[in-house]
């Protein structure tokens, strides 16, 4: 097969690697070896001669004589085309193939095919390619030699060869390998290994603009608290990254809300010092918050500036540490920085991410690039992603939050009201999250518009906002100072901290992914106040929500989210999509991914 042709077929199959191809397994096997007796219920192949036939309407019934067996069998065609009629002329000889059944005690085959090639067991592939193209591709590329060259070991090679070339690689008459037990484990391994290799091949490293290694001890010593072990670990990883000049850092730091990522950001800014760093935040509230923290904790000699649309502070042209919103991306005279950081990376849109990417992707030398995210991903996924970008996880929080989570329903409503009133008396705040702003027939829960009358009539200080609300930042700031109850949709700010917020009620909680619920829950108890998270649902029971209530770690929740993907609960679309593995299960197969990674590290010398 010509290489160009193979390339075209690879594209058609939407695959890139040899192992991608080898992992497209036959969906079934076609046994075209001549049968020595008629066995109803099986798909069989016979040498046959057409004795006579009857055509009525579109139907054709053909009587075949099987010379080798000295028996007769009939073939039924329900829609006999002129082609069929010509093909099965009386007297013509065929190798017929199809599923044998009994009709009134007589053997027959429905829609028998006339084979050109026979005497073998052919794998059948269900792909967009023609069967013959697919077989040619497999024959050409899935060879023992190629599979070994990809780094597989003999058991894995043996398995793939038996699956694709059953006859050549099994004992005569042996059935195809069952995809179960150990075989599944091997396929999972190959899948993980292939995926890791693809990621690794996509990674390109560039030299850094500068090595950044100013000491951070003076900064750390003046902090009013000791850094958690995880904060220290991540800061050390970043120190190692930034002190290199040969390679610009590309690292994603993932930690739950409240795990103290800001201190890590500030420590990195200290390392960069006068070589300048830029920090981008998704909203102006968050940018200001970071700016205030930077001013509070960083050594005086580090000049900090804030850049936002409209109100900025300090002169960014002079600053060592420039904090801002995406307004930064549109500055024409943004000075070159040796370190670029993004906070709450998960909250930027695709367009902004592309702009950001452009900011750190120019020139032969690149700035060090650190991204911070509060969307925990399952540990196994983090292990995978770290092929493409280094990943640090912060799993501890500086102080254990006391949050009580509970699933509630309609009958708990009076109790919920009593709870809310008690909290309001203590000068605490309540957030109620509704699935929608306006009424909808599709959703069996109240919308904000339907519910607000109830709250406003009964309570003072009720505020309302939602994702598309232009004034949401002002409303949130006003609510923070003087509000009591906030009605909102899920899309409101994550970053702004509401220190007096102690209760969150999520209406229609089963409609949301666990990761989203976890983000929402992370908004209460920011300052260590005892807090509550109520998941309001019409469901009689939900194991998924109950498990959520018992789980605190965002990383474990990310794993549960994966594990419940196929569960009966409705989960918002974004989280369900994107499963790219056929066998591998990121929620369960940490060990397999670990082994695949080891193989990759041992097998390939760079
Ligand atoms: P994140 O950005 O990860 O959500 P923050 O950086 O905002 O979390 O930290 C949450 C709170 O914890 C802040 O009030 C911060 O000052 C505080 N904090 C951070 N690190 C520590 C620590 N090591 N000990 C005590 N408090 C800390
Ligand atoms: Mg933060």
From TrEMBL:
Keywords: ATP-binding, DNA damage, DNA repair, DNA-binding, Helicase, Hydrolase, Nucleotide-binding
Pfam families registered for this protein in UniProt: DEAD (PF00270), Helicase_C (PF00271)
Chain ranges of the Helicase ATP-binding domain: 242-394
An annotated Gene Ontology molecular function: DNA helicase activity
Name this polypeptide is given: ATP-dependent DNA helicase RecG
Gene3D superfamilies for this protein: P-loop containing nucleotide triphosphate hydrolases
Domain of life: Bacteria
SUPFAM superfamilies registered for this protein in UniProt: Nucleic acid-binding proteins, P-loop containing nucleoside triphosphate hydrolases
Top enzyme category: hydrolase
UniProt domain Helicase C-terminal: residue ranges: 412-568
Keyword DNA repair recorded: yes
Enzyme Commission number, as recorded: 3.6.1.-
Glycoprotein keyword on record: no
Gene Ontology biological-process annotations: DNA repair
């Amino acid at each position: 097969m010509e290489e160009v042709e193979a390339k075209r077929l690879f594209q058609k199959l939407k695959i890139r690697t040899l192992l991608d191809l080898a992992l497209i397994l036959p969906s079934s096997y076609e046994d075209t070896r001549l049968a020595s007796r008629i066995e109803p219920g099986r798909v069989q192949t016979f040498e046959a001669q057409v004795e006579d036939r009857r055509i009525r309407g579109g139907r054709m019934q053909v009587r075949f004589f099987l010379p080798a067996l000295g028996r007769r069998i009939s073939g039924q065609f329900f829609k006999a085309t002129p082609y069929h009629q010509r093909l099965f002329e009386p007297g013509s000889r065929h190798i017929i193939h199809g599923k044998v059944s009994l009709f009134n005690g007589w053997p027959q085959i429905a829609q028998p095919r006339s084979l050109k090639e026979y005497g073998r067991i052919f794998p059948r592939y269900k792909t967009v390619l023609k069967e013959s193209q697919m077989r040619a591709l497999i024959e050409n590329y899935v060879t023992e030699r190629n599979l070994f060259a990809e780094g597989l070991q003999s058991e894995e090679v043996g398995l793939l060869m038996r699956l694709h070339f059953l006859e050549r690689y099994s004992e005569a008459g042996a059935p195809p390998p069952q995809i179960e037990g150990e075989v599944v484990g091997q396929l999972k391994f190959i899948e993980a290994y292939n995926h890791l290799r693809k990621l690794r091949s996509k990674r390109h490293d560039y030299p850094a603009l500068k090595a950044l290694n100013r000491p951070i001890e003076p900064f750390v010593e003046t902090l009013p608290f000791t850094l958690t072990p995880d904060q220290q670990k991540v800061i050390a990883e970043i120190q190692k990254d930034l002190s290199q000049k040969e390679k610009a850092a590309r690292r994603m730091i993932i930690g739950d809300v409240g795990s103290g990522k800001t201190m890590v950001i500030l420590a990195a800014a200290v390392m960069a010092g006068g070589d300048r760093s830029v920090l981008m935040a998704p909203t102006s509230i968050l940018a200001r918050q970071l700016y205030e923290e930077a001013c509070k904790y960083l050594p005086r000699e580090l000049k900090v500036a804030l850049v936002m649309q409209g109100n900025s502070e300090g002169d960014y042209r002079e600053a060592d540490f420039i904090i801002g919103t995406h307004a930064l991306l549109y500055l024409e005279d943004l000075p070159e920085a040796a370190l670029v950081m993004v906070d709450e990376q998960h909250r930027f849109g695709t367009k902004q991410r592309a702009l950001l990417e452009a900011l750190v992707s120019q020139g032969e030398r690149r700035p060090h690039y650190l991204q911070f995210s509060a969307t925990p991903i399952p540990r196994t996924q983090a292990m995978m992603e770290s092929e493409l970008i280094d990943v640090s996880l912060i799993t501890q929080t500086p102080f254990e939050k006391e949050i009580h989570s509970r699933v509630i329903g309609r009958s708990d409503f009076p109790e919920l009201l009593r709870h809310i009133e008690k909290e309001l008396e203590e000068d605490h705040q309540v957030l109620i999250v509704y699935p929608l702003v306006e009424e909808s027939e599709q959703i069996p829960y109240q919308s904000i518009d339907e519910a607000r009358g109830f709250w406003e009539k009964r309570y003072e200080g009720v505020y309302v906002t939602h994702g598309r609300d232009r004034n949401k930042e002002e409303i949130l700031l006003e609510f923070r100072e003087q509000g009591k109850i906030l009605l909102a949709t899920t899309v409101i700010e994550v970053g702004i901290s509401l220190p007096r917020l102690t209760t969150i009620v999520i209406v229609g909680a089963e409609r949301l992914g666990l990761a989203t619920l976890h983000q929402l829950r992370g908004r209460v108890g920011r300052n260590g106040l005892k807090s509550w998270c109520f998941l309001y649902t019409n469901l009689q029971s939900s194991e998924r929500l109950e498990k959520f209530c018992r789980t605190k770690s965002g990383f474990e929740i990310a794993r549960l989210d994966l594990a419940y993907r196929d569960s009966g609960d409705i989960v918002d679309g974004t989280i369900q999509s994107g499963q790219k593995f056929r066998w591998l299960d990121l929620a369960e197969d940490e060990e397999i991914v670990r082994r695949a990674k080891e193989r990759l590290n041992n097998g390939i010398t760079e």
